[in-house]
Amino acid sequence: MNENPADLAPELCVLIAAVLGLVNGLFLPRTRQWRVAVICAAGLVAGLAVAGVAATRPDLMAFDAFEIDPVTHVTRIVVFGSTLLVVILAAGQVRDHPRESEHYTLILLSALGTVALGATSDLLVLVAAYLLASIPAYALAGFGKDAPGTEAALKYYLMGALLGVVMLGGVTLLFGVGRGTAYPMLREGFADASPAVVAVGVVALLAGPLFKAGAVPGHFWVPDVTEGAPPAVAAFVTTVPKIGAFAALYRFGAETSPGGWAVLVAVIAAVTMTLGNLAAFGQDNVRRLLAYSTVSQAGYLLVPVAMAGRTDLAEPAVLYYLAAYAVTNVGAFAVVLAAGRDDLAGYTGLLRRSPLLGLSLVVCLLGLVGTPPTAVFVGKVLMFGAALDGGHAWLAVVAAVNTVASVFYYLRWIIPLFGRRTGRPAPRPARGASTVAVVAAVLSVLLGVGSGIALTAS
Amino acid sequence: MSAALRGVWGVVPPQKAGMIPGWGSGLVVDELSVFLLVTLAVVLVAVLAYAWADGYGVRFHALMLLFAAAMAVTVTASDLLLLLMGWEVMGAMSYALIGYVWSDPERVRSADVAFLTTRAADMGLYAAAGFAVAGAHSLKLDDLATANAPWRDLIAAGVVVAALGKSAQLPFSFWLSRAMAGPSPVSALLHSAAMVVAGAYLLLRLRPLLDATGWAATTVSWAGALTALLLGAVALAQRDLKQLLAASTCAQIGFMVLAAGAGAVDGGTAHLIAHAAVKSLLFLCAGVWLTRRGTHRVVDVAFGIGAVALAGVPPLSLWVTKDEVLAGVGSSALLAVGFAASVLSAAYAGKALLRLFQAAERVPVPLAQRIPLAGLAVAGAGLGVLGLPGILGEAGPVAWESALAGAFAVLTVGVVVAVRRVPEPAWALRWFWLERAALAGVVRPGFAVARALARFDDRVVDGAVEGVARGGRWTAGLARRRVELRVDGLVGAVGRAARGLAALARRPQTGQVHLYFAQAAVVLAVLVLVAVLAG
Prior knowledge:
The complex is a heterodimer. Chain A contains 20 helices and two strands. By secondary structure, chain A is mainly alpha-helical. Chain A has a domain at 310-458. By secondary structure, chain B is an all-alpha fold. Chain B has two domains: 14-429, no CATH class; 444-525. Chain B is 76% helix and 1% strand. A two-stranded antiparallel ribbon of chain B has the order 1-2. In chain B, strand 1 and strand 2 form a beta hairpin. In chain B, helix 9 (196-205) packs parallel to helix 12 (241-262), helix 10 packs across helix 11 and helix 14 (297-311) runs parallel beside helix 17. The longest helix of chain B is centred in the C-terminal third of the chain and has 73 residues, at 434-506. The radius of gyration of chain B is 37 Å and the shape is elongated.
């Protein structure tokens, strides 16, 4: 049994940064708490570097629960990378806030939980990781202590509590069926267990990751939290926990392959993407619009998850789509932060006012549609390929129709950008958030253009 | 070509300069073109010196030099391609020079007429070039005679038409009358060493081709002889000195064309050179009288010498060269016509000579104009040596013929000067109404055909296009009324349905947690059902 802590070095880097940040925050004066942001960012960068080095080593299993394989590598890199962007976004928001250092620490802890969620192949660790990823996020949602934030945090917590309990029930059931919690044991146990019991157990187990992923039926919190929580937190909770959730879903599906997995997840995917797209149509609040957009993106992401184990395209599709989605979504939220407006009308003439910011938004939104040459386009192509290769052509058709429909509400946001603004001048966009938006847009395009290199190298 | 001259010429081998690789194209200075080049250069210097004294500007000199350069290319070209280039540039420059005073619409119209007439004839040369490529697979002038039967005749026909047009032979002569609209120095160059002689030169150069066809040589001979005779009559009837000189140019070039047709190449060349000197001299003298409204002793003497030489009075130049041409003519009918034309030339020269007897005021003429006049007069008087046996003439003129011709010339001039009155019939005064005939026979039918074709284009071709457009609009209207409504309705229905569904999709998001819980529970239950059914 491998119990070498060095195999978890990236996570340890981030954990140490979180602890150091918290301890430093206790002693630092309020005006110098920005140092905690630097510590946390340094920890994330170190984690990224170590994860990059680890990705070159052969696959292995640590502590009988953590699988260090390509899924984990990508999860680590994408989670740490997008968390880094979120920390930069948050740094501008909570500067000189009384609890500034807690903010960064909570973000880092939640990110750690997310990585554990994606890396584990044991149900009990999955539950622990779920809790680690969720609880800091509840606190973050209500960080502003204002009415919408509090309401958002409460709804987030209540939904998470319900679905977490259901998930625990599912874990119990599956433990009983499989006589163990490790995925290889479950795989053997499923073979000669009652299908109905397995079905109930799997659905109950899925409740947790689906909550984290923001997919039906765990999507109810997404619009409310995205609108009510501080924008940086909204960017975080709609991006980072999803990465771990989808990695966990994919890993569970691929390694235990319960009966009916493909159909079950495919149905969830179809419902999720359709619901998200339709609900986004009439939104005038860009944060709610982005929230429903993330729901629909979750639906697309569930397509290759459903195809886990059925085609070789499933794994690259999940991983590439995750990376592309994370970068693009953070970029879109960064623009919202920079512009400081939540209503669609506030974006009229943005391209004229600040061309770089407007262009970044256009790139990110067109990226979410899946326009070449952005990264999400490559992810979507792989997703369609996985659906067709896995024998679920109907799912590809549903996804295609949804993609076409999604153009509508993204364009509703893009078109005003080209207009001419009337009325009072808007405030200058925040510099840090603008930078993050531009970086994310550039990354999105680079990931799309360089997809050939990225996919052949892996 | 005499042995003596051939000896001199032997020192300088033919000079060649290639232009298009593979086509053997280039410029050649050989036995024929060297004389023309020298003549061109001498006349050009004389004319430009004269023009300089009259104070012409940059545009005039640029055009004149281009004109002369184009002529030089034309006479040295060894293939049809280069020849056409020189030929065309020369034609364009003649247009610009005739219409030099562009502010006068009448002169510009004259330039139009001259240019369009020569252009129309030039088509023959283009056709000849095409036929040469088809028939002889070469554009080299030396190869044209070797083309196969139908092609050879077509080439010859094209060349003859172009040459007759450029040289203002019948029936194209009228453009030369129009060309008088240009300034005197232009006329002096255009009528002597450039432009009009290019046609005669081309025929002289392509003598083997004319011989090879059989009919072409005869046709050319008769065209030249008849032009010499009839335009001689026209010249005799003219009242205006410049018009007289213009018609006399046609007639004199008729002798050269006759020489080309009859095979008297050396005689034709000699006549061309001598005529160039005489005619430029006469035009420059006429220019002095016209521009200075007076005369000068040098001008009078020079004009007298020129006119007497033009008359063919012995021992001046044109007497010798013309007789050499006539000596080369074999057919007696042609000879008779040529002889009659020769007498006519003496008559109109005599009429020109009468100009000297009119009283005129004495005016100073600058040295820069007197010197070229004197030089040209000397050349015009003495160039007869070219025709002597051993210089350019292979066989000298027959002695008694020469004597007879000289006697007739002296006699005719004497009679004209004595009588001082010659008949001026309207047909001759109006150049046989050639321009009017061309207008009626070519221009008006051409315009009529063009109008008819334009109507055809408007009604049929354009009508078809507009019909297609109308049909397209009609079809579009049909599609809009019948098809578009349904398609549009379908699109609208999809949009409305999407809107309805979108409104429905927002219904579950009530904002109330207990409803969220209930919905999540229901969905999970349904999912269990799905999983059970699928598993």
